[in-house]
Design goal:
Blueprint: H1 6-19, H2 22-31, H3 36-48, H4 52-64, H5 70-82, H6 86-101, H7 105-125, H8 127-131, H9 133-140, E1 156-157, E2 164-173, E3 177-184, E4 190-192, H10 198-204, H11 211-232, E5 238-241, H12 248-255, E6 259-262, H13 265-277, E7 291-294, H14 304-312, E8 317-321, E9 347-348, H15 351-359, E10 364-367, E11 372-376, H16 382-392
This protein binds zinc ion (ZN).
The site of zinc ion has 8 residues, from loops.
């Protein structure tokens, strides 16, 4: 290899890392004496991308040169744990506490969000964590000051499938709340911890899109729901809407001649909660609806399974809109739908989560392949549903 310009060094490091060829990577980093500053910089960037193996190798080489830094300690403690080197794990941990304490609160938060959290998924996947989660928490607990007081990283129960939802990252909501996000490996459902900040977010209300866009969106929704009701439901029956628009959609549907009631989603969520706590009511006493529509609200539901059961005890289908979680899962700040500035969105579904919600209740999940979803116990052809959605678009 020619004499390395800084550009060549980084280009080569990231290219070899991306190839996942550790033999070539090692040969390159050990082959000549690269600048310590370049190696530190590459290690920091690799950690931020969650590329722990390459960062760990650079960390060990830098340690031999007598270097010490918080980024190195993270690379060594995390890498040592994942790749089964207890000595390196201990070396990293030995310096971490003092190094974290020496940082300002803002910088601690930055280090945690940009370097530690991207490694959490690798940590959970490691056999060391599977045998002894306490070792992972030992690393994470050094950052107790940047998560909420008393927060302890233990997994939660998935609200979609009942499986184990592991801690994944923290989002910085509304500029001041630190919210933990949990991801379930069994159904890909991602959700925040119980939304203690939600009352404030909900009080702000929805940010309305510009009126022209909103009118267009409404007329499309009205036309689509009208088509569904006329073709697949009893057009004379009563329907329920719980969209996040204070009842405006229900009103436009009534104006178009449909029987429609409105009830706020929060009221429904409280009722669903009470119903689960009480013994189940006899189905004879329940109010009945044809279809339930829930626009811009499903992502704000903390207990989607409970809510779905409540609504489906009263209707044969729930229609809602929501973009599905992209694969790979975006980091906080990489997906506008996380709504970090508003803090309203707390539930994120992947295709697998939708299938799981449906299967557990013997429902059919119909989708236009984008944002529009119908969970129903009626037998409706996916082609018919998609055809209607296409026609409206
Ligand atoms: Zn799950």
């Amino acid at each position: 290899m020619e004499e390395n310009e800084p550009y060549d060094f980084f280009e080569t490091i990231f290219r070899l890392d991306a190839c996942d060829d550790m033999h070539e990577f090692l040969e390159f980093v050990q082959g000549r004496r690269h600048s310590t500053a370049d190696m530190l910089s590459a290690m920091t960037q690799l950690l931020g991308r969650g590329r722990i193996r390459s960062a760990y190798i650079l960390g060990m080489l830098l340690e031999k040169r007598g270097q010490r830094s918080i980024v190195m300690s993270i690379a060594l403690s995390v890498g040592g744990l994942i790749f089964g080197n207890a000595i390196e794990e201990g070396n990293g941990l030995a310096s971490l506490e003092a190094q974290v304490q020496a940082l300002s609160h803002e910088r601690q938060m930055e280090v945690y969000d940009q370097m530690v959290a991207p490694l959490v998924s690798h940590l959970w996947a490691s056999s060391a964590a599977k045998q002894d989660a306490e070792r992972v928490w030992t690393i994470l607990r050094h950052f107790q000051d940047v998560v909420t007081e008393g927060f302890d990283w233990t997994p939660q129960v998935c609200k979609v499938c009942g499986g184990k939802a592991d801690y994944w990252f923290h989002g910085h909501l509304r500029g001041r709340y630190r919210a933990a996000y949990y991801w379930c490996a069994q159904c890909d459902y991602l959700s925040t911890e119980a939304p203690y900040w939600w009352e404030e977010s909900a009080a702000m209300g929805e940010v309305d899109p510009p009126p022209a866009q909103m009118r267009q969106q409404w007329s499309k929704r009205r036309a689509f729901v009208g088509l569904l009701l006329q073709n697949l439901w009893d057009v004379h029956g009563e329907n329920l809407d719980c969209s996040a628009d204070g009842g405006r959609f229900a009103r436009t549907m009534r104006e178009a001649g449909f029987r429609y009631r409105y009830q706020g989603a929060q009221t429904l969520a409280r009722a669903a909660d009470r119903e689960v706590k009480r013994s189940r009511r006899s189905s004879k006493t329940l109010e009945r609806y044809e279809l339930v529509t829930a626009f811009d609200v499903w992502q704000q539901c903390a207990e989607p399974g409970k809510m779905l059961d409540y609504l489906l005890a009263r209707s044969d289908g729930v229609l809602f809109n929501m973009p599905l979680l992209p694969d790979p899962m975006p980091k906080p700040g990489e997906w506008a739908f996380y709504d970090l500035s508003g803090g309203r969105n707390i539930s994120f579904f992947a295709p697998r989560s939708m299938r799981r919600l449906a299967e557990r209740r013997q429902l059919q999940w119909l989708s236009n392949g984008e944002e529009l979803h119908l969970l129903t116990r009626r037998e409706i052809s996916g082609e018919v549903f998609e055809g209607m959605a296409r026609w409206i678009r």
